[in-house]
Amino acid sequence: MMINDKNSQKIVDIIQNYARKHSLWILAYGTGCGAIEIPPTMTSRYDAERLGVRGAATPRQADVLLITGYLTTKTLKRVIRVYEQMQDPKYVIGFGSCTINGGMYWDSYNTIKALDRYLPVDVFINGCMPRPEAVLAGFAKLQELIQAGKADGARKYKENLEWYRANQKKVIPNWRMPEYNW
Amino acid sequence: MEEIKSTIIQRIKTHFSDATEKEYPYNRVDFSVKKETIPAILFYLKDEMGFKHLSHISCIDWLEENEFEVVFIVWSPTDKIKVFVHTRVDRENPVMDNVDMIWRQANTYEREMREMFGIQFTGLEAPEEFLLEDWEGPPPMRRDFDTEAYATNTYWERPGREDAKDIRETIEKRSGEILPDFAKKYTR
After folding, report:
1. Which fold has domain A6-171?
2. Whole-prediction pTM value?
């Protein structure tokens, strides 16, 4: 929603961000081993739904893409496609040390070592594996960033698409992907 | 158990002259044969001796001897005995007979070995790609494939983990948190 008046826009943004941060729907898509920490986060013991975090079935319904662990180049292809199908506002959480610096798969022949070269990451959660408390802390941090209007990964991706594309094509030699015109 | 094992060894040795056996304790018997005998010995084990179940096919890379070793593990549900059939394939020209007419699930193992070790199975009907997509390098499970060099050349690495320094020292410096003595002995 865009309003010409500057001060009114500020108020609209605050309300918008407040609403967005309390309904983070994460895509039910688990890569690597970290997806095993999501069921305890979602179920009764840690109950992430009290923060508005819940699962969504399809990319078009989801706001948050959780990359739970290592990404092989084969999975990276699917993840990029999923991310580009998601609708704004969208956020990416890198989960586990594999997304930060490769983790224990640092010398593997088919896993990438740094996720933020290929997709814009808003929040990293470190640990191998991060406990549900750490996952919730990551979500709380993301909410903070959204309220402050600083979770702008999607905008970064659109503005620097060429840089991201060049990196993606370096590890995915046979590029047969649809181009979206969002 | 010992009686059944000795009869198995006897029957295999009378039928296949190139088979050499090696006995292990409990329920395991090993045979080494030439690669031309593999379909015949597996057919014989399955149809005549009740080894109905193919447990696994695996491959070992003997780089120093310039050979691949392919191991077939079969299991007999009636005798409760497993038989390992070893064979050696030349590493420069690794060609073997396809055995997926005996057990259909052998097809999957053969596809994996074709992709990971580069062993060609004559008459194997399967798509070219199995697990790897758009793979252009040499078969990655061969021992002369330098995994670390490939990973360093292909994927960008975030600087900071070359020295393998303990993160706790950095935390100590940054936040002024005092490390307990027992934690210091784990730092490298």
Report:
1. Rossmann fold (3.40.50)
2. 0.82
